[in-house]
Write a structure and sequence with these properties.
The structure holds 3 protein chains of 3 kinds. Chain A is 72% helix and 0% strand. By secondary structure, chain A is an all-alpha fold. Chain A has one domain: ABC transporter involved in vitamin B12 uptake, BtuC (Orthogonal Bundle). In chain A, helix 7 runs antiparallel to helix 9. The two termini of chain A are 24 Å apart. A two-stranded antiparallel ribbon of chain B has the order 1-2. The termini of chain B are far apart. By secondary structure, chain C is an alpha/beta fold. Chain C is built from 12 helices and 15 strands. In chain C, helix 2 crosses helix 11. The chains are: A mainly alpha, B mainly alpha, C alpha/beta.
């Protein structure tokens, strides 16, 4: 995790531009997979938000789904109660998730790794139970249906084939990615990485550690909330599992698979994970879990930087020769 | 009231037995082992197989579950866990989640997804009536086994040379090494012991908690909870935490069924706020 | 696992068929096939395959092909995505399955938007059929099987009942229906409790029941591990000895797990629409064919029957349409289905698109060394009172 190369200058490399053209091409090349595609983008945004919290700020969180779910329910409830405008729904969800993240961050930044892990885990579980209990509002285990969305920008309805959903989620992902990318190469982003590397030294150079961590956590929560809202809006449904531990664990795996602290790692890891899951789970749902577990174990031993980390190592070795 | 207290203590004692190994692992090796529940599950399945396929009586199957899981723990520690002691907590979390997933899939493949039935011997079934309340005989048995194990452990830790070595290693591993204590062997032995206890707890718990392949993931939270709230690396910490959490959970479900599972997490968050290093925490 | 491979091979074969040959009728089966509820999907699919074994899979010259999708359920979000993909990518003519109410509710809008009939083979809460005009249900509803239990109990001198249900839509449906019917018949509900859906430990709840001293406890929990856990707690606390009887919906004594539950279940009275021990030639043939098709499952249960009858109805629709499938016309035929099912006679109420069937009162007895739900009373032509 240390040794993640920063995205050098703010300028976009050619590889990055090519990278972003791929999903655009996929829209036309794989018309039957647009629903899966939009879900990949949403998960990628979620993973990106966790990268900010874990990869950059170094906060080990096992309950990040709490903010994802909060955003999902916020947007879903808004739409179910009559306010179906998509973009304002996103903003509202982001605000609510940010508020929750802000409040939680005070608990999270104290103590160290272990306590933080438990607090994030515990908060996630508490929220899950609360949503379960509040079935009158959230629909409980049966989920929140009746989420009816207005047309996006007044012109594009959310259709069955997922066309609007695809473009919508890709656009939001891109916009927030650009924002995060600038943030990562800004002084704020650099100070986050410094805090992660050596927390004790930071006050010595005048960086306000707690404030930076709170800011990072809140931003990460807000972005997760947007991802959740996107899910609610594009599927017109909010299930209890948007808050569940399984989702928190999954996004962590996706992020680490791609390589934390590298932004693109979140995107690549998510894409690889979800596409593999879609293909393999069809063949063998039980064994999918086994291979996933094995992959994690191998990842930890042989490829700590995930896919991008391994790619970088290969590139470095090739460059050295 | 007495009945509820008793049930809570029995449930808590079960949690304690399983979580003890995790407490030692987290306190001694500073290793976040989310796969600990898998050892408990393994113990449960060993017990079931011994009883259903080989006709071993329940009481004899218990030490068998302990031994088998302890052996498995020793092997895994030597081969895998040992290499990650210095790794970041994130890596440990990922590794242990991976192991947990593998164990769940393996259990499903070997035993199917359904609950495992186990027939208790007749003398462990039913209830006794005392002090105006009914007490389940099996839960009395549970409490007795856990109490006995705890006493044995306390004696082991407090009165034997091995115990002294463990305590020294927990306090300061580097200094312990400097004194000539083979810390590696201590680690392996304690990990094996902790896993064995988890396996025993899993076998004992079939009757109370059920046994199916999703056990490690379902109950992992409770074990982690007990350790972090109680304070890793001690005997007293998880004991106190397990009892408190067990009683709170059972009492909440009895008196306020509407609150259900809420209570246990709420109590946990409150306790963590009040005692960030755990009730009897040692970490500075 | 086998079934998925077979379905995939069938799909590949279908794709490889040269143009000009008849395309198969595609049915998308959406259900849990892994995780704790894996048996739901397996029983449903086995029921479908039993139907094919007994009646072949070609109707009006077209072969019916089942595309299997696993929700790893209960997972409404995945169910919805799978339904969407089945409809847009695989172009299925029918959606089928749905082991859980939340999954059915999430997929309902897909059926409506695509105008594809959705044959529900298990999801049991009343509200399901109201979510889309394309839904036809072949399983049962909880109020439908719970109300007769209340009637029977009141008739047989049980005056005070404590209810325990799982806290989700089917459970709440069941509780409401039981309470309404029981109190209307003059009985008294001592108290009620709703347990969390994934509850591992019933001890505190069962203790509360014991302390309340009712004559009977009425329980509904999803079939499988919850029922087993409840019976464990029930036996451990000696409720039977305290004179408390268990009355329940048949989910408690689901044929799929009944044999592994042990002696404590003997004598339990339940109400349900299907028992593997139902004495009719149709059922006997069904059970026999089922054993040949799925030897790894102990015996068919009510979900297998849901699969069997659902597929029978689809086959009937294909035949009546002469092989030319149109969503709206197929729906019209499905709405008027009448079948002699392994469970007994069933038909669909055209107004609600929900099933009307006989609800049996059964008692668990040992027959030929195995536990079975033996029917001893019946309530014919029960509609869903929840509408």
């Amino acid at each position: 995790m240390s040794g993640a190369a920063p995205l050098a200058s703010g300028r976009w490399r050619r590889a990055e531009i090519a990278f972003w053209l791929v999903p655009v091409a996929c829209y036309f090349l794989f018309p039957g997979y647009r629903v899966l595609g939009s879900q990949v983008f949403i998960a990628a945004l979620f993973a990106l938000s966790l990268d900010l919290v874990l990869g950059y700020a170094g906060i080990l969180s096992l309950g990040h789904a709490a903010y994802f779910g909060l955003g999902a329910y916020a947007a879903g409830l808004l739409a179910a109660h009559g306010w179906g405008e998509p973009l304002s729904g996103l903003v509202a969800a982001a605000a609510i998730a940010a508020a929750a993240g802000y409040l939680a961050s005070f608990l999270v930044v104290r103590g160290e790794d272990l306590a933080r892990l438990m607090v994030t885990l515990g908060l996630g579980l508490l929220l899950y139970e609360a949503a379960n209990r509040g079935a009158g509002v959230t629909g409980g285990v049966d989920g929140l249906s009746g989420v009816s969305m207005d047309r996006l920008l007044g012109a594009f309805p959310f259709d069955l084939a997922g066309d609007t959903a695809y473009v919508y989620s890709l656009a939001v992902l891109f916009a927030l990615f650009v924002f995060t990318r600038r943030l990562a190469s800004s002084p704020f982003g650099l100070s986050l990485r410094a805090i992660r590397e050596n927390r004790a030294r930071m006050p010595a150079i005048g960086a306000p550690v707690r404030r930076r961590l709170v800011a990072a956590f809140t931003l990460g929560a807000a972005m997760a909330g947007v991802a959740g809202a996107l899910l609610a809006q594009t599927t017109q449904f909010v299930g209890l599992d948007t808050l569940g531990f399984h989702r928190s664990a999954e996004v962590l795996i996706m992020l680490v698979l791609g390589g934390a602290g590298r932004l693109y790692g979140a995107l690549i890891g998510t894409a690889v994970f979800m596409i593999a899951q879609d293909r393999l789970a069809e063949l063998d749902p039980v064994y999918w879990q086994f291979w996933l577990g094995l992959l994690l174990v191998l990842l930890v031993f042989f490829a700590r930087g995930g896919i991008l980390g391994a790619a970088e190592a290969i590139a470095r070795r090739a460059g050295r020769r | 009231m007495a009945g509820v207290l008793f049930d809570g203590l029995a449930y808590g004692s079960l949690l304690f037995l399983v979580s003890l190994g995790l407490s030692v692992t987290m306190g001694l090796m500073n290793f976040v082992n989310l796969a600990h529940g898998a050892f408990a599950m393994a113990g449960g399945y060993v017990c079931v197989v011994a009883m259903n396929r080989y006709g071993v009586p329940f009481l004899a199957a218990l030490p068998f579950a302990f031994a088998a899981t302890a052996a498995a723990g020793a092997v895994l520690e030597r081969l895998l866990y040992r290499r990650l002691y210095g790794a970041s907590h994130l890596d440990q979390v990922l590794f242990s989640i991976g192991l947990a997933f593998m164990s769940v899939a393996a259990a499903t493949w070997l035993f199917g997804a359904a609950q495992q039935p186990v027939r208790l011997p007749a003398f462990l079934r039913g209830q006794v009536h005392a002090f105006g309340a009914d007490f389940g005989i099996y839960r009395i048995f549970l409490l007795a086994v856990v109490a006995a194990s705890t006493l044995v452990l306390a004696a082991l830790l407090g009165r034997t040379r091995f115990g002294a070595q463990v305590r020294a290693a927990v306090d300061d591993a580097r200094a312990a090494r400097g004194l000539g204590i083979d810390v590696d062997r201590v680690f392996t032995a304690t990990f094996a012991l902790g896993s064995g206890l988890a396996g025993l707890g899993g076998a004992l718990g079939i009757e109370v908690l059920g046994l199916d392949p999703s056990f490690p993931l379902k109950f992992m939270v409770y074990f982690l909870l007990v350790v972090v709230v109680g304070g890793a690396g001690t005997l007293r910490g998880p004991l106190a935490a397990a009892m408190i959490l067990g009683v709170c959970d059972v009492a909440a479900k009895y008196y306020v069924p509407q609150a259900g599972a809420f209570a246990i997490y709420g109590v946990m968050v409150l306790l963590l706020l009040a005692f960030p290093a755990g009730l009897f925490g040692r970490r500075a | 696992m086998n079934f998925v491979k077979i379905a995939l091979v069938a799909l590949a074969a279908a794709v490889a068929v040269p143009a000009g040959a008849q395309e198969p009728v595609r049915v998308g089966l959406v259900a849990p096939f892994s995780g704790g509820a894996a048996d739901y999907g397996k029983q449903m699919l086995a029921g479908i395959r039993t139907f094919f074994r007994m009646h072949g899979d070609t109707f009006a010259g077209r072969r019916i092909e089942v595309i299997v999708r696993d929700t790893t359920g209960p997972n409404p979000e995945i169910a919805k995505r799978l339904a969407q993909e089945l409809v847009t990518r695989d172009k299925v003519d029918f959606l089928a399955g749905f082991g859980f109410t939340p999954e059915a509710l999430a997929a309902a809008p897909v059926a409506t938007a695509a105008k594809v009939p959705m044959v529900v083979m298990n999801a049991a809460s009343s509200v399901v059929t109201t979510r889309s005009p394309y839904i036809v249900r072949f399983s049962m509803t909880l109020p439908q099987v719970s109300a007769p239990m209340a009637t029977w109990a009141a008739k047989h001198g049980i005056r005070k009942v404590y209810t325990l249900v799982a806290d989700y839509a089917p459970g709440i449906d069941s509780e409401k229906a039981f309470k309404a019917t029981f109190t209307a018949a003059g009985g008294e509900i001592v108290d009620s409790v709703r347990t969390p859906l994934r509850n591992p430990e019933f001890a505190p709840y069962v203790q509360r029941i014991k302390d309340a001293k009712p004559e009977a406890v009425f329980i509904f929990v999803p079939s499988g591990e919850q029922g087993i856990a409840f019976m464990k707690a029930f036996e451990e606390r000696g409720l039977a000895r305290a004179g408390i009887q268990v009355i329940a919906t048949g989910d408690l004594t689901d044929d799929d797990v009944l044999q592994s539950m042990g002696d404590p279940v003997l004598g339990i009275v339940t109400s349900h629409h299907y028992s593997a021990a139902h004495d009719s030639p149709v059922n006997r043939a069904f059970v026999k064919a089922f054993g040949e098709v799925a030897p790894e499952l102990p015996r068919p249960d009510f979900m297998a029957v849901g699969g069997f009858d659902g597929m029978a109805a689809i086959a009937q629709a294909v035949t009546k349409l002469g092989g030319r499938i149109d969503g709206d016309r197929a729906l019209e035929i499905l709405r008027h289905t009448k079948l002699e099912s392994p469970r007994g006679p069933i038909h669909i109420d055209p107004a609600t698109r929900d099933i009307v069937q006989t609800v049996y009162i059964r008692r668990v007895e040992k027959v030929g060394g195995q536990y079975y739900n033996v029917e001893f009373d019946r309530f014919p032509d029960v509609k869903d009172p929840g509408k």
